[in-house]
Structures are given as C-alpha cells and as structure tokens.
C-alpha cells in the first residue's frame, strides 16, 4: 500500500486553511516559478512559487475567488489577502503556493522559470538561475529558450537603459482597482527615510528582498520584494495625494503599529505601513510597470549585500542559491570585489 502524507496550509491570519493528502511517491513536488504579468500583479511579487497538487480539502467560505482569466480562478484570504490556491477549470488542476504549506523544504523541487518573456529583464530568474546546483530552465512562453538557461535573460526588443526616462512609475494590481504613480526622488528625501532604506543613487528609490515569515505568508510567496518611496512622492490615478486605503484596498493589522493593504477584488499585496515610519511606505514591487522590466532597475537601487529579516529563513536551500545568484549579478554591476555580509 502506498503511504500518504497530510499537508496543512494556512494564510497569515490563519482564518483560511486547507489540507492536502499526497502520496509519498509524488514527493518532492515539482515546483515552478511563474513570472507572468497576471501572477506578478495578483501577488505583488516578481514571481510566484506554485506546485500542482491533488484536489485540496478546503472550506472556501473564508476565501475570495478571483477569476484572473477565463480558465483560472485564484483564491485568497478575505481577511489578510494571502493567495493560497489556484484552480484551472479545463483540466481540473489545483496549484498551491508552496510558501503557505507547513513542512520541510524537501517537499518541493524547484525546477522551472515560466513566462520570463513578459518581464523584459528576466525578473527573479536572473538571481535564481540555479537551485542545489541544478540549472533552472527558463521559458519565455514556449519552447524553452536554450540561450538563457543560466545567467541573465533580456528581451531583445527592450532598449538599453541610458538613465532615467519615465517621469512617473505606474503601479497597479491586476484588476486595476488599485492604481497609483510614484515620482522620482526630489530634494532632500533622506530625512524622511531611515539610512538603511536610502539609496546612494539620488534618482532611485531603495528596494530589498524580504524573506520574513509574515511577509512570506502575506504575499503567499517564498521570496518577497519591497520598494521604499516616501508617501509625498506618490499620487493616485486621479491625481490626489496618496492615502492608506483607497479604491478596492482592504487593510489588515498584522501586528501592533503595522498594517498591510491588499486589493479586496484580486488579492494583490499593495503596501506595508509602519506607524514608526510615517513619511515612507513599503510598496510591493510586483505592482510596478517599469519600461526597463520587472526589476525596475531604472527606478530602484536593489540592496545586494543582505536580505531583510534573514533570521526567518524557512527555504534555506532556496535562499542559499539566491545569495549566489544575487552576488553574481551584483559583481557584474559594481565589480568583482563585491563582498556581501549575509
């Protein structure tokens, strides 16, 4: 008789849960990273980490269902916004966000980067080209692009950057219920930002990779990304000043002095607000639509020497591979002497 394992999954606030019974012979699950614009703008991340699973045991009454396409429905927690499940109607296939499942990292085998073509710059696939020494195949759409299985991928139609071009950076969730614009830094913004979140390039905002437990669950993604503009440089689509809740946003207070906002219609994580930092805001990078690509390098100066909240590592092998890829990328930018303080 084939032995089985019961897997439990939950959102950040634990109001939404599901369980999955799997054959041990099916483990580890092949897990892909999808970089399509739908996934980026529904989760708020550079990509999502999804694994195909048998039909889960789940009470969907605590979830909001969002039809992101004719064939796919996504389910996120109505209270905190965590994206947990996707269901493709055509083949009755379910996918789970692996980061919300309790259990060891060995449950998952990270194999492929899908839909990198829409990123323009390769997105997270540039920083995570290998896991456990295995090259992760990159797919633009179909078939595999054999020239970009390792290292960078660049859309050949995207012109090389010659410095700042856009005056404002458009940001939006997938359903466009949340939409705003970010202006470039102007004047002395350093006084409104902590030194650790202030870029050295005065034309760009700082950005970082976050692997803390609460963000991992809030985004439904194993690796998250934030950008750190000041509130004074953000305007809503109608030109009005930024405010904490607008459009289809819902707010969840995840800890004292901290609130997170997400779209109540499509579930996209939007922002992190800390009362201790009233003049700045953490914006989910997956919402950004920069001409240069998903990483928005014309707008963002990425922190490359450390991760935010590295003490919360759950996916250790994944993060170790990310460190190597990020160092390789940074060395190409700042020189071979770059030495991160992981």
């Amino acid at each position: 008789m084939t032995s089985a394992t019961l897997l439990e999954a939950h959102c950040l606030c634990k109001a939404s849960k599901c369980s999955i019974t799997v054959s041990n012979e099916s483990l580890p699950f092949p897990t892909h990273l999808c970089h399509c614009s739908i996934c980026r703008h529904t989760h708020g991340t550079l990509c999502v980490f999804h694994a195909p699973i048998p039909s889960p045991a789940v009470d969907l009454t605590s979830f909001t269902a969002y039809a992101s396409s004719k064939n796919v429905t996504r389910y996120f927690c109505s209270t905190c916004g965590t994206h947990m499940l996707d269901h493709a109607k055509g083949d009755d296939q379910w996918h789970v966000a692996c980061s919300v499942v309790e259990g060891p990292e060995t449950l998952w085998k990270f194999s492929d980067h899908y839909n990198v073509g829409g990123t323009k710059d390769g997105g997270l696939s540039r920083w995570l080209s290998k896991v456990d020494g295995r090259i992760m195949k990159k797919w633009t759409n179909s078939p595999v692009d054999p020239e970009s299985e390792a290292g960078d991928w660049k859309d050949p139609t995207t012109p090389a950057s010659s410095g700042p071009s856009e005056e404002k950076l458009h940001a939006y969730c997938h359903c466009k219920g949340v939409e705003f614009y970010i202006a470039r830094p102007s004047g002395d913004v350093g006084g409104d930002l902590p030194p650790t979140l202030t870029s050295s390039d005065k034309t760009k905002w700082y950005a970082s990779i976050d692997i803390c437990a609460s963000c991992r669950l809030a985004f439904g993604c194993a690796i998250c990304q934030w950008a750190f503009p000041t509130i004074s440089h953000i305007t809503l689509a109608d030109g009005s000043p930024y405010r904490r809740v607008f459009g289809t946003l819902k707010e969840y207070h995840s800890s004292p002095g901290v609130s997170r906002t997400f779209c109540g219609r499509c579930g996209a994580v939007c922002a992190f607000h800390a009362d201790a930092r009233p003049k700045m805001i953490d914006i989910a990078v997956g919402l950004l639509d920069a001409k240069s690509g998903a990483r928005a390098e014309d707008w963002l100066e990425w922190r490359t020497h450390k991760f935010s909240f590295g003490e919360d590592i759950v996916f250790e092998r994944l993060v170790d591979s990310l460190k190597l890829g990020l160092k390789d990328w940074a060395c190409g930018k700042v020189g071979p002497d770059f030495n991160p303080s992981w």
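The CA atoms of residues 168 and 183 lie 5 Å apart. Residues 146-150 have pLDDT under 50 and may be disordered.
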